[in-house]
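INPUT
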Amino acid sequence: MIMTFETVLFYFLAAASIASAVMVITRRSPVMSVLFLIVNFFSLAGLYLTLHAQFIAVIQIIVYAGAIMVLFLFVIMLLNLGDEQRLAERISYKKMIAVGLSFAVLMEVLYVVAYSGTEFPTKNLERAVEIGTVEYIGRELFTTFLFPFEITSILLLAAIIGAVVMAKKKID
Amino acid sequence: MIELESYLLLSAITFVIGVIGVLTRRNAIIVFMSIELMLNSVNLTLVAFSAFLGDPTGQMLVFFVMTVAAAEAAVGLAIIIALFRNKQTLNIDEINILKW
Amino acid sequence: MVDQILESLSKFLPETTLVVAFCLALIADLVFRKNRGIVTALSLLGVVVSLLFAFQQAGMSLSVFSGMMAVDPFSVFFKIVIGVSAVFIILFSLYSHDVQTTERRKGEYFSLLLALTLGMYLMAGAANLLMMVLALELTSLTSYILAGYTKEAGDSSEASLKYIIYGALSSGLMLYGISIIYGLTGATNIYGINEALSTGEVNEITLLIASVLIIAGFGYKISAVPFHFWTPDVYEGAPVTITAFLSVASKAAGFAMMIRFFKVSFLDSNVVDLPSGMWSSLQGFEWNSILAVLSVLTMTLGNLVAVWQNNLKRLLAYSSIAHAGYMLMGVVVLSDKGLAAVLIYFVVYLFMNLGAFYIVMLVANKTGSEDIDSYKGLGYRSPLLGVAMVIFFISLTGLPPTAGFIGKLYLFVALLDAKWIWLAVVGALNSVISLYYYVRVLRNMFLRDPEKDSGSIRFSVPQVAILLLLLVPTLLFGLYFAPIVDWANASVIMFGVR
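OUTPUT
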């Protein structure tokens, strides 16, 4: 019973995430794209829960759907964009190459997944639940990963300064 | 029980959709959203591997990828605002003083 | 754990200095609003002190912060190359028109420059895929901003946008590659990856695809074809000081990270029957053939397209792409000799390329143009500048008696030693093509009459002094190069590799 529930949940979330991803890149209006991207993020958060990664699922919603997407929406509103021009209808050779390349990548990646299947381990449920908790991640973050954590603070500081420098209206 | 392959396939598909978005869309904001899609599929791969390997490193990586994505989005959008002030457009085909 | 972290910190002084200088520069910018020269002085001091600490690290070989970073002769070498070029860039900035006309933003400019330098230092030492990503992103984010620093000029913010789109795309590809590698090996530490690859059987095709995706990230940083698209636009649109910094230091950091990743992760330490100084990669996984192809594409495209350029910054952009191709040849051969050749090339490239960009900056300050046409008769308007440009260009072409010749010589010797004759031939042919476009500029400078009513150009003493600081080594290292060669040979040692 639980097995089937998990399976149904996975396929539902997977379908939602693929469909919303396609919508993101095909909508003409950036606002619609943002909204579908939020749907995508929520379905990914659900998938993280099926993988027992609770902490990641929560920050996925708080950081991505809550902060980054609001930033996107805010910028779109600020610039007051209408519908962008219709997607170029004529097929340019550039676009053909782009789509061709993308499919080449797709095929390669599918190849990876299809042909290396047997080597992958099966899930140890208890262990998976253990490592997904806030406690476990917090302990790792402030011991083994302390240094990258500190470097991240520099990265964010530099990004803040940069964003202010670039977006400020007139400084001189 | 869902196999690891299903997760990997799903993230591969999302990743490719993101790449296609970057390569074909001309609106700079939508290009950035496509990049977010790519980074999210990376996160899905990492979480899936992490859960199946029973190793926390993957989830730590996700944490950092999210931070990087946030920083990149903030800077990217700031650059878009600066550019929009100069050109009044976000279509990357119309932004062409410099040749592509 | 705490002891270990404190112990690591004491081995980490160059980077710590930069972090402190970065924060101080930010504060100083807020406190001393009247006198922004203090920020400049502070950042110069920060970089110089970090360089001194880097020199002190000579001979160390250890890993710090739970294996996140390596402090070894290899990383110290690159830190010094990056630090020295940062010093030059700060000096350039004192006389750069782009920087000096944006008085109120100068504080941010110098503090971001420090953050950029820090990112590159971290790239040089990163021994964990996570650290590599973070260091790469720190470097990239600050370079996006600095490339768009003169944002009121349309082409600068445009350069910035193109840079961030290409950058974000390639870092996305790289992250996907990293996630696959992590899945295959269960490790993010490059030594852990090496161990996992040596003991377990790994699907070769999966590994190949992951490596190609990761090369996208490195390739973008060193501007190798086909990840070079951003280079000409960013080099043309960015302030010339930033262009010069990106062309030397960013490339050096990218090479350092790439070499460490490939050498350590795929090193097969069980093969013993090799000539000394050579090494072999695991399971016949030939990552170096991918790089060989990239190298040929990179130098050929860079040189061929450079021929058609009319903007000198754009021409130098393509020439820097071509130089990345030459340096890749040294990585391809899988020998210590090849690596040493790359290191030698970087020392030489630092002086000659910064020199060429410095002259572009000086001329643009006076004439307001970077077009090759505006260099007509420059050799008569300012003989010193003319002669200096000749020397830098001869060096970039790789002809004696300049330092550029030594750089190329060691590369070709390493190639021939390892029997990569066809690659050496391609490299030599490319040098011939490069002669053509460098000479085209020189012809404009000496054989064309200057436009009417343009008098001679004069420079202040410090400006000339900076020029001589770049010019003298370019000539000197062409004749007396033993110290560099010794230093490079001693610097190929990486932590954790026999």
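end of record. The longest strand of chain C covers residues 62-64.
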